[in-house]
Each structure stands twice: as C-alpha cells, then as structure tokens.
Amino acid sequence: MRDGREDEARLRARFSRRLVLFGGVQAGLVGVLAHRLHALQILEGENYKLLSDSNRISMLPLAPTRGRIFDRAGQVLAANRDELVVQIIPDRAGDVGEVLTRLQTFLPIDDREIARVIDRARRQSRILPIALDAKLDWETLARINVAAPALPGVETEIRKRRVYAGGEDLGHILGYVGAIEEFRAGQDPALRLPGMKEGKSGVEAGLETTLRGKGGQVRHEVNARGQVVRQIARREATDGADVTLSINSALQARVMRHVARYKRASAVVMDVHTGEILAMASAPSFDPAEIVDGVSDKAWHAIESNPAKPLLNRAVQGQYPPGSTFKMVTALAALDAGLITTKERLRCSGSYEVANHKFGCWNRGGHGRVNLHRALRESCDVYFYRIAERVGMEKLAETARRFGFGEMPESGLAGEKPGIVPNQAWKLFTFERPWVPGETLLSGIGQGYVLATPLQLAVMTARLARGRLVTPTIRKIDRETHQPAAPLGYDETWLQTIRKAMFAVVNQRGGTGHRAALGWPGVHVAGKTGTSQVAKASRARRNRDLPFHLRDHSLFVGYAPYRNPKYAVAAIVDHGGGGGEAAAPLTRAIMQTVLSDPVASGRGRATTRSDQQARNAAVVSRRVVRQRRRARRRRNRR
Amino acid sequence: MSVTSVDAVDARSFAGRLWAVSWPLVLVVCAVAAVGTAMLYSVAGGSFEPWAARHATRFVAGLAMVFVVASLPLRFWLALAYPFYAAVLALLVWVAVDGTQIGGATRWLSLGGVSFQPSELAKVSIVLALARYYQWLPHDEFQSPAYVLMPLLLLAAPAALVLSQPDLGTAALLLAAGGTMIFLAGIGWWYIVAACAICASAAPFAWSLLHGYQKERVLTFLDPERDPLGLGYQIMQSKIALGSGGFSGKGYMRGTQSQLDFLPEKHTDFVFTIIGEELGLIGTLSVLALYATVLLLILLIALRCRSHAARLLASGAAATLFFHLFVNAGMVMGVLPVVGAPLPLISYGGTSMFAAMALIGLAMCAHVHRRDVIDPRTVNPLI
C-alpha cells in the first residue's frame, strides 16, 4: 500500500501548479477585457461619443387625458381644464441656476423656488423634467417660447387639471385625484410624468383603470445640444374612457340637504330594479375642488383632525351594528329553515335568559305573546333572541351573506368596507376564543359583532323588496339591455310575510317607524327601524342623558312605493338615538323627495301609473300642507 | 496526520471562527456590492425603488449567510453536498415540467410566493458536489476511466436540464466552472486533450441542436450589423454606451444611453455598460480590479488549504465567479455572444445574488477551516 501522506503531498503540488496556471489564464482573460475596454472607450471613444450623441433618441411618454365623469342626466361632474406649466430639463439646461435666473425676467419665481429646483435636479435623473411652481398665462408662455434659444432646457407645456362640479354634494362620490406617490416597476411609464394624477378616493379611485387610459410615447432624435432633429415615431396615448354615473345630481343635492341637517349622518338611495345608486349622501362632506388644487398643510390638518371625519364616506366606509334592521334576515332564516311559522306566538316578558345571562328587550315591560308580524312591527327583541337561538349562527350567517352582508359591495367606489358577518370560525380566527351561545342571540338582533355599511343595508332592502339578487353599482345601467338579477332563492310567501310586516312598521298602529310614513294617499313606505347601541345598555341612564359620542345610532331602511317597489333607502344618523326618532323622519324626507322627482332614475317622462299616482299624491299633499300652513297663519294672526 | 491541528480548530468558539474569516475578502466583496447598488440607483433614475434598495437588502442578508456558512465545519457542508445536488436536480426537472415562462424560456419556479431560478442554484450545487466527490475518491483511482466519467455525469445532468430550458449561457457557465474543477482536482492531461478534441469535433453537431434564436445570437455576434434593429441592436447600443463613456464617463446618473431606455436589461445583464457610460474607463477598470482582487484572494485561500475538498471549494467558487465576470463583460463589449449571464453582486437578481454569496461563503469556509484535515472514511459516501 502506498504512503497516503506522500500521495497527498503530490496531489497538493499538482493542484497548486494547475491553480497557478488557471490564475494565469484568468489574468490573461481579464487583460483581454481591459484591452478591449481601452479600445472601446479610449481609441474608439470619440467615435462612439458621436454615435451616442447623434443617436440620442429621446423617448418621451405622452400622458393620456383622464376620462370625464357624468351624472345620469349627462351633466359633467368631473372634467379637465388646460393649465399652463413651465418646466426645466436639467440635462439640456446645463447650469440650471443660471437658466432659471434668466427666466426670472419673464416669470415671477423667487430664489427659494430656484434653490428647490437645483436641489431636485441634483437628486433625480437629469433627463426628467422638473415643473416650476409658477402661474403662467398665454402671453408669458408666448414670450418664453420666443426666447427659447436663451433658455435651454426650459419647456412650456399644457397640462390638464381636474375640475369638479357639485362641491360638497358630490365630494364623497367623486373623490379626488392627487400626485402618484409611488411608481412601481412595470407600470405605464406615462405615470412618471410630472403632471400625472391618480384617483385617491371615491369614483376617481374606484374606477381608476377605466378613467386613466394608457400612455403613449414619442421618440425624437435629438442632437448633441438637445434640440429635436426629427420625430422618429409617435404612438398616441389612449385617453381614459368617460364614465356615466348612476347618480342623479339634482336629487343628490336635495338628499344631501336632508342629511346635512344632522351632525353626522348618511343615506343611500337605490333603484331596486337595477341596483343603481341614485343618491348617496354622507355628512359632513368636503369639496374635492379644494383638495385637488393642492391643499395647504393647515387646511389639510383641519380636515384630518376633525373628529367628524369629513373625508370618511359613511355610506360605504362607516360600519355600524345594523341593530333591528337586521331582524328581517333573522326572520327569513327561521322561516326558510322551517323553525318558525307565521302563526306561532312566543312570549316576551321583557327579557330572556340563556346560560345565566339575561338578554333584555328594549321594552322592559315585555310584549306578551307575539307572532312574527307583531314582533317585527314592534321590534320585539326577545322574539328574535328565541328564533335566532333556534336557527343557530351558521344558518344566520349564511342568510346574512345572501343579503350582501360581510362582503364587498363592489359598487365602483373606492374604500368600501365589507362589514362583518360573524360565525364560529371567524371568532376563533379573530379572537382565538370559542363562540358563546349568547352571541348568536345578539347577532339575531343585529348587535354583537355584526357590522354593516349603509350601502349594504340599502342592498338588503332592495333584495327584500324585489326578491332578487340586486347588486349595487355607481355606474348608470342601460335599461334596454339590463337583465333582471337572479332570484334570491327564498320562498315568495316568506318574503311577502316580511314585506307586510315592514309595511306595518311604518303604516300601522304600534309600528316603530310611523314617522317614516309619507302621509300621501295611495303611496306607502315599508321599512324597519334600527337602534344600534354604542355604549353598554344601562338602565339607569336614558339615551339623551349620555354624552353625544356614546348615544345610540339611529337607523332606518325602507322602500317605496309598497305595492310597486322602485326605490330603497337606508339612512343612519350617528348618535341620533332610536331608529324611529331620527332616521325614520330622515327617510321620509328623502322618500318624499325621490318620489316627487319626475326623473329620479332617469326613465325620462314618468309613464307608469304608479309614478303618476305618486306625483299626484305629492302635489295633493303639498297643497294640503300649504292650506294647513295658511290656516295656521290665519289662526295665529287672529 | 496531525491530529492536534484538527483539535485546535474545533477548540475555537463560534465567535472565534466568525472572527477568523478573511476580512480583506469581506471588504472587497462589500465594495463590489456597493458599486452595484449605486448603479442600480442610477438606472432607476435616481431612486432606491425598484432595484437598489432590494439589491442592498439582499446583499446584507447574503453577507450574514457568508458568515454562517464560514463558521460551520467543512464536513457539514460536504455532508450536505449530495442531498443539495439531488434537490437542485429535482427542482430543475420541476422547472422543465412546470416552470414559469418568461421571454420564451422557462427558467423560473415559484415556491411559497418566492420565485427563483433553480439554474442559479445549480452553480452552487455543482461546486459542492464535485468537491465532495474528490474528497471521497481514493488517490489511486483518480485516473481510472470509470472515476473520470462519474464527475462528468455529475456535471452533465444539470447542464443538460439547464440547456433544455433553453439557457445556453448558464449551461456553458456550469460546464466551464465544473470542467475547471475537474482539471484542478488532478485528472491526467490525456483526458483533457481528449475532451478538447471531442468538443471540437462535436461542435458542428451541437450547432444543429441549437435553437434558432441561439444560432441567431451567435451569428449576430460574429456580425453585429447583420441585424441592427433586432438582435444586433442590443450589442450596438451597449457598445455605444460603453464607448461613449470615454475615459472618465458622462457622470454619475447622466448616462444618456442607459437613462433613455435604450437597453432592455440594463438593470440585470447589461448593468456593466452603465458603469462604462457613466463612469468611463476609470469605472470599468476599477470594477475589473475589484473583481480581480476578489478572485486573487479566493485563489490564495485555495492554495493554503490542507484538505483537497477545501481547495476545490475555494477554486470552484473562484472559477464560477470568474466565468460569470468574463462572459458578462465580454458579452456587453461584443467579445462574446449575447447569453444570459449576470454580473455577480452587481446585476439585479435575487437568486443570482444568493448563488454568488453562497459561493463566497464556501470559499470563506475553506479559509476558516483551512487547517482541517478530513478523513475520507468519516464522511459517509452515501449521503
């Protein structure tokens, strides 16, 4: 056997020899690279420099024009206005400071602005233009263009600015555009242009892809001094598409006026056939024109620190416990599962006990023995605790989701919230605690973990009224091609039972929502009140004695006309107290406005009989009101 | 064999072994990565997004990996060599069956939300596997044909899979680095001469196997003006960018060719041209010098190692890095055809960064454990 150590030494020596050889080869090849670099960059350098200069093709992205936004009547709500801008390309300017100083004779720019531009030029690529902060008119623009040879790198440009109609009435719906904050690789290069904006909220953000369009590109051949020699290719930008909203802006303005009577409130008016959102109001609101113009830090701070959150669109972003407006869902779940009949009466003694915990009814004295109709009409909590207990949370949650709760409405508005439909798995995932039976009871009356937005409540109401899976949209729907939504999948007799009870809520003695009644002959609202608790219920204190931010929210959902449903309304008055107190009269005011609008949902002339009927009723009732008022005045004078 | 030295190595604490890394190498590697980050910042038009920030983050993570790899014993990595090789081979098969197609070639794989190129990992696995093989092979078997064929098969399997993606560049790089290792390991000159002869005679046959676009690339390389608006365009523009930089360049962030989007892959394979355009000959030669220092330091490590495996690990790492540098730089200056080869530590790319840092880590491990002697019998040949 050979000596391992000797072997090892020989192997190492051979490795070392070969490694040195390999090192030499590497050195040689790196030398080849260095030689080649020398040839390219020094010997032929001038040649390539010429090629590079003459070959300098500047590729400029072309910005698409943002699509306009119209209301359903064809009125412009958001459009673009030309704005003149002056900008400088540092690479072509050479000495930026000097060129800007020369520019001062044409334009009022101060030294601070010059310092800002110089600093900016140092930090970003020198071929990207920097916009100057200066107001420009056509005359100055012409003078700058004439003096162009003395102002290398200075360019004037016509940019589009977004203008909005409607002010605060449409703020939440339209939203506003702002500068693009982050540019991600792979995005349309036109987005890098200084003037490009993107939607930040509302429809502007929700329908961004439709409104934005696609950037184009122009390739210029540029000489060494940066002057354009010729245009090589041009691909025009594809402008963004115009969008027509489902909003009726005249109606919107009036609904907004009703809602703005309250400190914080919101309402949604929906066409129950198409799911079109005809009006959507949230108070307080903001004027997008003020924000899009570039808002001062102070003004922005005022908006942001306002406790009423004017930027929050309560109608789609406010999540509230639906309270008793949720009872229709509980009732339908029980009817559908066959766990209750319309005749069966359950006893309400003012409270119901489960697992040593007492769940109270709003009526401490109890409702006695009530059937479904009465339970809904008088909003008996105990009745719904008991049927929710029978139905169980899973079935209840499934029914709630069928009505659009717990999922994004996807109406086209940005920032929608999905609300919450709790169930056992959800609670385990969120709180890592098991479901407690009492929580099913609370969910049955729309309290506990259940959360919904006003838009979702309007969707629920529309689905109840029509028995179809109406989906909400902020875009106008072509009635010619519109297909009715798929059926909801519940027995029509059960739906009819619930509708009758909703009619009773508003129009019968003992109904909690009588203040929503129109008071018009032949036209009726069907609906449901809701009160969602903010603070833990306490017997000792009445709601109005609580501080404002702890008072109950007042909710109401309803549709009209009862016999031939056309419109669904959901209204929430934050901290407004009981559903019958604030939200019901608000809904009545909104319904009266909607029903007396001849073109509420844009069918042109009112042709159907019930439309005619409704309007006649409105005229009659207005006449009656006027007469009464006159009579009162006369009486007072006496 | 001196047992004491082995004991002495093992006696060092973890921190002691961390401290024993080659600090000059760490320094130079950091310098190269810093150049890369700066250039990616420039390519993005003066922005850390989308490339520079992630590049720097990956490098820092990679550096941490270098220290970990270096401080664990060589034996540990050699034991992992074959399982890792098998895993990479499996990934390559997976890519062939179900990979993501980007730009006509299927090179990407998505695992748990992370997409990467298994072909980059193959570079590391080859180096490890060959080192492991020659550590195990008894000295008197080095020249017997069967044991010469084995490493060739070890090399051919991943290379063939990568070639089928199709990725001619990476396959060639694998073969070059692996071939160098086999040569350094000590096989006879006759085998080498024979291999060259076989390659030369098989060239026409190989040409017929190439894909149309690969043939195009080679032809375009031979005559760039053949197709100035298509494939030749890249080479022409890249040469213009490099050449127009001149001696001192157009200035950082002032490259017109690169900033104006002339080069489609300026942040990955063509990043060297931006160095040339913006920093001139001074920049390109400095980068070459930095790389040369990295390679020299690793080769010196290889010379000082006691175990054959450590030597091969270090020299394999050096060979892989060198061939990448040569092919990439050669490609952008029109010396070699356009094949996909990133510039290690400078080109943007997660898997490529990982592979480069893993190789540097292995070289560093060889340095830290250069006095270790590994008894072939203690490493189970089956794992």
What do you see in this structure?
The complex is a heterodimer of chains A (638) and B (383). In chain A, 39% of the residues lie in helices and 17% in strands. The longest helix of chain A is centred in the first third of the chain and has 40 residues, at 4-43. Residues 603-607 of chain A have low confidence and may be disordered. In chain B, α7 (145-163) runs antiparallel to α8. The radius of gyration of chain B is 21 Å and the shape is globular. Chain B has a 3-stranded antiparallel sheet with strand order 1-2-3. Chain B has 383 residues and is mainly alpha-helical. Chains A and B meet through α1, α2 and β1 of A and α8, α11, α12, α13 and α14 of B.
Task: Produce the secondary structure layout.
The complex is a heterodimer of chains A (638) and B (383).
Chain A: H1 4-43, H2 45-54, E1 57-62, E2 69-70, E3 76-88, H3 90-93, H4 96-103, H5 111-123, E4 130-131, H6 138-146, E5 154-164, H7 171-174, E6 177-179, E7 197-199, H8 202-206, H9 208-212, E8 213-214, E9 216-222, E10 228-235, E11 238-239, E12 243-244, H10 249-259, E13 265-271, E14 277-283, H11 288-292, H12 297-305, H13 314-317, H14 327-336, E15 346-348, E16 351-354, E17 357-360, E18 368-370, H15 372-377, H16 381-391, H17 393-402, H18 424-431, H19 437-444, H20 454-466, H21 492-507, E19 526-532, E20 553-560, E21 567-573, H22 583-595, H23 609-637
Parallel strand pairs in A: 2-12
Antiparallel strand pairs in A: 1-9, 2-3, 3-4, 3-5, 6-7, 8-11, 9-10, 13-14, 13-21, 15-18, 16-17, 19-20, 20-21
Helix pairs in contact in A: 1-2, 4-5, 10-22, 14-16, 14-17, 16-19
Chain B: H1 3-11, H2 14-19, H3 23-43, H4 52-71, H5 74-98, E1 100-102, E2 105-111, E3 114-116, H6 118-136, H7 145-163, H8 168-185, H9 189-209, H10 212-222, H11 231-244, H12 256-259, H13 271-304, H14 308-332, H15 350-368
Antiparallel strand pairs in B: 1-2, 2-3
